[in-house]
Amino acid sequence: MRFLDEQGNLILIDIHIGCEVISVVDDPQKPYVSVSCSGSPKVFQGSILVGADGVNSCVRGCLGLPKAERVGITGFRGHCFTSRNSVLRTLVTEASPSVAPLMIMKNEVIFNSFSFFPRSDLLIWSINTERQELADSVQKNIEAFDLLRKYADDETWHILENFRQETDESVVQRFEMKIQDMSDDQLAKYEGGWGGKGRVVLIGDAAHAMRPAMGQGGSMAFEDCAMLCRMLSREDTSNVLSDYYRCQEEIVLKFESARLDRVKIIHQDQTEQSNKSYKKDSVGWTDEFRDWVYEGI
Predict the structure, then answer these.
(1) Whether residue 179 has pLDDT greater than 90
(2) What is the CATH number of domain 2-68+181-295?
(3) What is the H or E stretch that residue 12 is in?
(4) Does the pLDDT of residue 97 top 70, yes or no?
(5) For residue 25, pLDDT beyond 70
(6) Residue 23: helix, strand or coil by DSSP?
(7) C-alpha–C-alpha distance, residues 155 and 79, integer Å
């Protein structure tokens, strides 16, 4: 990958596809961190390792941190396109781009759809349930739509059938929803952060995966990126990164401690909002909380 920095200098970045991190060596006596991956004989070295590899983070595992915990919700997700389907095209056209074009929220099953990619006509959908026996009754992933039949009127069911019709069965995945433990007892084991150390820092779901109630998991990941970039833009960054202990104190732990309180509050809120959605309680924020969230960092 090639791009230009602010001064117009050409920057080259190598992207390696199909690799999984299997070991991280961060020797305090060396000025770099080393990473080994499956599928590649090369050992990668750098001034800092940013673990941005999601809820099942391999980097997190290499640090000896606990895995994300299941929350008792099974989901099915897939995608389809609106270009060849007038029903779905109309559904998206009539919805605001920032609002899910179709949502069904019941005690047992929740359906969500998202139209974030208007240029590609792409629709993302998910079906979630807290009832394990319902999830286990689905023999083929695409049949998860049948869990919604008794909750949908004829018009809504017609739309759902169009979702199913336009979805390639091979892309539908089953998953178990997981979150990271952000309790005070767990976080007390770390030095004011969420587990990064030396020249290894975690961001996004690898650091603080939360319930997907209102899109805040992705928002927190972007905020992580913004704040980490600010900290790495300091004038003496190269000197700090080359020193294991300075990097740990002045970059990794400083970054995580600066983010921790905000992330914990939103992490807890997303759990509460998600639980409310399965009970059909009102889902929303107070004006004060919304303003605080949107204020950002």
Answers:
(1) yes
(2) 3.50.50.60
(3) strand 10-12
(4) no
(5) yes
(6) strand
(7) 21
Q: Tokens representing 90?
A: 């109309």
The predicted pLDDT at position 98 comes to: 56
Over residues 41-53, mean pLDDT? 93
Q: Cα dist. 206→51, 82, 201 in Å?
A: 7, 33, 10
Q: What is residue 282's predicted lDDT score, i.e. its pLDDT?
A: 66
pLDDT of residue 269: 95
Write out pLDDT tens, residues 196-222: 999 999 999 999 999 988 889 999 999
| Helix/strand/coil for 293 | helix
| Other Cβ atoms closer than 10 A to 143 | 14
Residue-level pLDDT at 137 = 96
Give the tokens for residue 24. Answer: 């991280």
Kindly provide the b/e burial profile for residues 180-218, where b requires at least 16 CB atoms within 10 angstroms of the residue's own CB: bbbeeeebeebeebbbbbbbbbbbbbbbbbbbbbbebbe
Give dist(CA 96, CA 115) in Å, integer.
Answer: 9
DSSP string, 83-122: TT-HHHHHHHHTS-TTS-S-EEE-SSEEEEEEEEEGGGTE
Where does CATH 3.30.9.30 sit in the chain? 72-177
The fold of the 72-177 domain, in CATH, is D-Amino Acid Oxidase; Chain A, domain 2 (3.30.9)
Residue whose token pair is 């190269």: 238
- Of 268, 257, 256, 274, which Cα lies nearest the Cα of 293? 268
pTM score:
0.87
